[in-house]
Amino acid sequence: MTSVAPGAPPAASAEPVPDLPDDTASAITRRLASRVVTLCWVELRKIRHDRTELYTRAIQPALWLLIFGETFTRIHAIPTPGHIPYLAYLAPGILAQSALFIAIFYGIQIIWERDAGVLTKLMVTPTPRAALITGKAFAAGVRSLVQAAVIVVLAALLGVALTGNPLKLLATAAIVVLGSAFFSCLSMSIAGLALSRDRLMGIGQAITMPLFFSSNALYPERLMPGWLQAVSKVNPLSYEVDALRGLLIGTQAHLALDAAVLVGVTVAGVTASALLLPRLAR
Amino acid sequence: MSEARGAAPPAGDVRPVGVPGVSAVRCAGLTYRFGDHVAVDHVDLEIGPGETFGLLGPNGAGKTTTIRMLTTLLKPALGNVTVFGTDARSSPMRVRRMIGYVPQLLSADATLTGRENVELYARLFDVPRRLRADRVDGALAAMGLTDPARRLVKTYSGGMIRRLELAQALVSAPRLLVLDEPTVGLDPIARSDVWDFIAGLRESAPITVLMTTHYMDEADTYCDRVSLMHAGSIRATGTPGMLKAMLGSGATLDDVFRHYTGGTLDDDTERRSIRDVRRARRTARRLG
């Protein structure tokens, strides 16, 4: 052990890992940003190494757009605002659905990491629980974003007139990431309660379709019976779809409200998951 | 990466961290309960800087729970544990920055390359960007993984994964390396291979190592001092040589353990080794 007397000048070549202060506001923000970037980086590397999921997950939305979308466009069964083609109306809904499907099963990863001892190892790094959850939530957002790009291209190929405004496309990306961040937090919270992959799969299956059908993804809210409208009003997916539709195809949307709701539920979701995380690490 | 470990704190900095003479680990009256069951019962322990220390005992002795309190994963019910003078309960982030941890299960991410696995931990420990590549390469080289670093971990053998985990733990230049059953489930060749790398590491840098194991032969060969743990409390502490000498010539560490704990370790060694093999197989399957 080569202990050096305190007060001695640091060796010229030595560059110890900085002992960052842990409790100042700027340190907390910097660390949070760093962890989000790191976990998103990991997610992108994983997608790069194995793209099969990207392709298999494109099949379902493609079917929704091709079969459901084309058919309902033809029969004019669902009145759309401004009489836009139903396929155009549907495309943002399917985009949100696809992101929901990815995010709602994201908690499986955290259970796998628990079983494999990875979670313990992550929790022994200087990463607060909330930063770990936020990082994972945004990593789910990144995965959804890659998927969203596939669906946007698909919709454009089917003739949907989507916006070309780069600012609106950026805002679309932000909404997709936020929506996925929330639903992945919901999934990680369920993971913290269910504690097993099978149970999480079951609960995930049980709630995705109700979330989807009780939102405005397939049909405008005003067509729903009163009770379903009430459910749709508290369904974060409706706000995500409303924003995506406004941004991508220019329907009337409540962008500020949508963004505020999504940010609010994401913060609540991160808090809940972070509080439940110790149950998984036990 | 190794030279960083011996670095003095900047002049004028009066943190207890880095003050010579401070114990690497000190547990005082450390206690943890799961419901009514006392898993760790008033453990007192002191590990000097630079020591390789073994915490020995059968499954359920309380080794892992002790480690979990030291690594800030569990809050002690009673007592405290400090790492280089910093309390794990009150300053968990600072303690985590000093620790490199390798858990019992093979826990590298099979869907990433070896290099990405190590880079992840460099980022999570805030290794500055301009140092990151060198640190990652250094840690991989120290564990003999330079060549396979670009391959996905799913192509690695068990011994390689364990060495990769050591590289992950080392990339942040920790002062204390915590190894929970580092060679469990590995075949004998991989076991001695892992130990050779750990021994090589100690020669090149003044790192403190705390490990748990139930392989008495490994503890005998590689640990400076050991504590024998049984049913939540420490029954004996000393150098392997000293503990053996107390029982007379020809005694092994196994005999010492039997002497202090009433033979429980020997009774189910057979059963446990079968369980280890099963667990290793499960891990291998999971990692593809």
Explain how this protein is built:
- The complex is a heterodimer of chains A (about 280) and B (about 290).
- Chain A has eleven helices and no strands.
- Chain A has about 280 residues and is mainly α.
- Chain A has one domain.
- Chain A is globular.
- The two termini of chain A are about 35 Å apart.
- Residues about 1-15 of chain A have low confidence and may be disordered.
- With about 290 residues, chain B is α/β, with parallel strands linked by helices.
- The longest helix of chain B has 18 residues, at about 270-285.
- Chain B has one domain: P-loop containing nucleotide triphosphate hydrolases (Rossmann fold), CATH 3.40.50.300.
- The chains are: A mainly alpha (about 280), B alpha/beta (about 290).
- At the A-B interface, helix 1 and helix 5 of A face helix 2, strand 6 and helix 3 of B.
Low-confidence segments of chain B, ≥5 residues, pLDDT <50? 1-19, 266-271
**Total count of helical runs of at least 4 residues of chain A:** 11
The major sheet of chain B is characterized as: 6 strands, mixed
Low-confidence stretches of chain A: 1-17
Order of strands across the widest beta sheet of chain B? 6-7-8-3-9-10
Oligomeric assembly: heterodimer
- Number of helical elements of chain B: 11
Task: Give the tally of structural domains of chain B.
Answer: 1
Helix content of chain B: 25-40%
Average pLDDT score of chain B: 85
The fraction of residues assigned to DSSP E strands of chain A is: under 5%
If you consult CATH, what is the topology of chain B? Rossmann fold
Report the order of strands and helices of chain B: EEEHEEHEHHHEHEHEEHHHH
Instruction: Give the class of chain B from helix and strand content and strand pairing.
Output: alpha/beta
Percent in strands of chain B = 15-25%
How large is the radius of gyration of chain B?
Answer: 19 Å
Helix content of chain A: over 70%
Summarize the structure.
The complex is a heterodimer of chains A (about 280) and B (about 290). Chain A is mainly α.
